[in-house]
Structures are given as structure tokens and as C-alpha cells.
Amino acid sequence: MKITAITLLVFSLLTLGAPASAEEVLQSSRSAGKLKQDQGTDLRALLQQREVVIKAKPVQPENYAASGDDQYLAGIANRHDQLFEIYDADVGLVSDLDGDGYHHALNVYFDVDVSIDAATVYAKLYLSREGEPWSQYFTTDLFVIVDQFSNDAYEVETELVDGYPPGYYSILIEIYSLDHAHMVASEVLDYHYLGRDVPLEDLGWDEPFEAAHDELRVSVGAGSFTSILIFFLFIQVVIAARGALALTPLKKSD
User: Which single residue of 11, 90, 174, 238 has CA 20 to 30 Å from 76?
Assistant: First the structure.
């Protein structure tokens, strides 16, 4: 019983320093967007200047039919003279530091068309990991689209900082117009749309093995109060176990 009590104490101390579960980790990322034809703006430099945005928990996107109703995927509007659609969209994967096939940055491209004249719109972007609830990670600036022109396409580059474990993700794009009360078009970018998976993970998961090994070595070399305490408790467990074995009477052989 004495050995068991000490062992439980050691395990309880070990769990004190354990990281929070995936559900408790706040999702953080940073994004930057621009019209694709804007050659005067360096999207990567703009991204590095952005502050990290932290979101507490995944939420259901606004005005999106969770059942995948076709009227939402095809686009809706409350004006009879304008209809919207996402004519084309794509996802580019960036920055796989550890070479495991999962990237911590992505570039989302989309071209929105309007049936008549022009419209001022903006987009909301969401991520979902393998069927989990959608989590909004960016809202674009206002931009103007004209008829079915392709030179008004938009792109958003995002770096996932924390709270995104490795997995296959889907991207949801929602389009809103200043002349309409509700969302006017949406599209889900996943395997069915793209013809390929979107493997993502946050920056914390994407560290190269060498860097993680060096960090562990430095941490062990520096030591900590908790590590020293656990070490001495382990020694006590060994001593107690040896004492218990010494007190156990040996069975006499026949």
C-alpha cells in the first residue's frame, strides 16, 4: 500500500505539467488578404505584420446550412436582379517544416461573380478538421466584383499558430454583399471539390525534429524544480520497493 500511494503521488505530479487537452487549447492564427491582381502588395510581408488572432472555441458559421442544403451551396440573394456565385476557388499549401506532409500555412484563392453590373462584397473564411464544428479564422476587407470578370479574384494567406492539430481540413468560404441582408454565396473546399486532401497542422506541430530535439536537450540540461522533485520521489519509490521486498519472508523449499 505504501508503494502504491507513493506511485500515485508521482503520477499526480507528472500530470500537473501536462498540456491542456485539444478542446481547451485556444485556436490562434493570422491572415492577410488582397485582390490577386494587386501586384503592389506583398502578401507574405503583409501577413508577417499582422497580429495573431485568438478565438476561444469553434462556432457554427452564420447563415450556413449545416445539412449542406443545395440552396446555400449554390448561392442565395434577396434581390431579383443580382445573383452571386463562387465561380472558381483553390487552396495552396505552404510551409511544411518537418516534412511530414502537413502544412501550417495555406493560401485560399476564390473568384466571385455577379450576374449584373458590380457589387461590393466581403468574405468570411472557416476551417473544419475532419467533420468537427466550423471555426471562423478570417474576414476580408471590402472589395468590388464586376460581372464575370476574372481580374477581381481574391486571395487570403493564413498561418496557423496554435490550436490546430494535424488532420485533413475543409475550408468554407461565405460571401456577403453590402446590398443584401444575408449571405449571397458559399463554397466548401474539401476533397470532393478540390480532388485532393488539405492536410494542415499549426506551427507548434510543424517544428523540425532537430529543433524539437535540441529544445528537449536544453530543457533537460537546465532542469526545473518539478523535474528534480519527481526524480527524488522516484528514488523514494525504488527504496520503498526494495525495503518491502527485504521484509517479505522467503518461502522455504521442501
Answer: 90
